[in-house]
Amino acid sequence: MFQSKLFGKTLRDPPKDEQSINARLLVQAGYVEKLMAGVYSFLPLGLRVLNKIENIIREEINVIGGQELLLPALHPREAWEQTGRWETVDDLYKLTDSSGRDFALGATHEEIITPLAKRDISSYRDLPLALYQFQTKFRMELRAKSGLLRGREFMMKDLYSFHVNEEDFNAYYKKVADAYKKIFNRTGIGERTVFTFASGGTFSKYSHEFQTLTSAGEDTIYLCEHCGVAVNGEIIDEQKVCPECGRPKDDLKIEKAIEVGNIFPLKTKFSEPFKLTYKDEKGEDRPVLMGCYGIGLGRVTGTIVEVHHDKEGICWPSAVAPYQVHLVRLSDEPEIVKQANALYEKINKLGLDVLYDDRDASAGVKLKDADLIGLPLRLVVSDKTVKDGVYELKERMSSRARVVKDIIGEIDKYKTFINQPIGKTL
Ligand code: ATP
Ligand code: MG
Predict the structure, then answer these.
(1) Which part of the chain has CATH 3.30.930.10?
(2) How many CB atoms neighbour CB 22 within 10 A?
(3) Is the domain defined by 323-415 classed in CATH 3.40.50.800?
(4) Residue 411: its pLDDT value, please?
(5) Which atom of ligand 1 is nearest to the CA of 156?
(6) Looking at the chain, which residues constitute the CATH 3.40.50.800 domain(s)?
(7) pLDDT for 424
(8) Of 6, 9, 68, 293, which has the highest C-beta tally within 10 A?
(9) 254 forms bridges with which residues in the sheet?
(10) What is the pTM of this model?
């Protein structure tokens, strides 16, 4: 991609109306643009990041047998009345059309997926089943001031699973937890993300969250440094000890964290109102047990930025960077242009995504923008490098540039490094 043609120019200064680090950097670097509080447009760079995260999630959920579908965002009031949630879900956007008919904008999709699942579930032979989608959710978030972390409209991966009994449900729940670990490792926040016990609502002892430790987090968690799991502050008073190893509450460390994903036992909360049952081997009707599992894509994007940035800008982990290589040309001399163009072609041929700064701008501006945009590898071609027959290579995360001769060899090495493995097939 030629940077001179890229829609989403960098801004000289951070936006004044954003407080959170993720929004300040993502807006200034041209990844997203705010339409109103909690609602953002994803510009070409931002969409590339979102798509990379989406693909990582898709690969890992497919490995555990999830089947992707796409449900509507516009829901009839009746679906939400069936579960009593038309009245009780505070953050539901409700609208009425000119004929007087009421709708909700999907805040979550249990009300849609459960009756849909009835289409194919009648016998124990139809179970287990796992269905998921990537969908825009709408929620009346009144405290939308954390950039991409809390949107009124945001992309979610939501997975729903259907089972004959607790045992089968528990086994699948564990598989999803493992898939989530892989997802957060691959998106570069794994080391800071902890498995957290959270409220299971009125019908289940626990749910679990994946919480990423950062001061930007809205949640307070109690981390057990002995076993590495945490307890959400919302339920700490009911716990007293680490639910994993029994250490007393006073030994747990209080941390701020962002909930990037969660997994939730639904038991029969939704199968009952929708009469989602199956016939067991004796031909008797039994309720289907369900689980639901969410990951917010925008929230993951914002979390990555909160965790991986410095004072110059974003430092993308390779697997989610919009481009792998930032080729920065610091001269308009015809010979330099020729060499840089040829290099651009070569790196593209190697199968790496390259952003090529071919703009008519000063070296200072170009290098500053490269740091702000934050691609993992910066490759500088200048009068000096061409004269010396070398290239200048700098990893975004490291403070020093290296002079290299065999650039293709270096890039090839790097390519192996970014091709991280995905989970094993079942
Ligand atoms: P929170 O407690 O932060 O409001 P939640 O419990 O409402 O989250 P869920 O309804 O379970 O979250 O949604 C599943 C996932 O969707 C969350 O783990 C999070 O990653 C993401 N998510 C939830 N609300 C938002 C939001 N307003 N903006 C962006 N992502 C969100
Ligand atoms: Mg919420």
Answers:
(1) 15-310
(2) 28
(3) yes
(4) 86
(5) 16
(6) 323-415
(7) 37
(8) 293
(9) 222
(10) 0.97
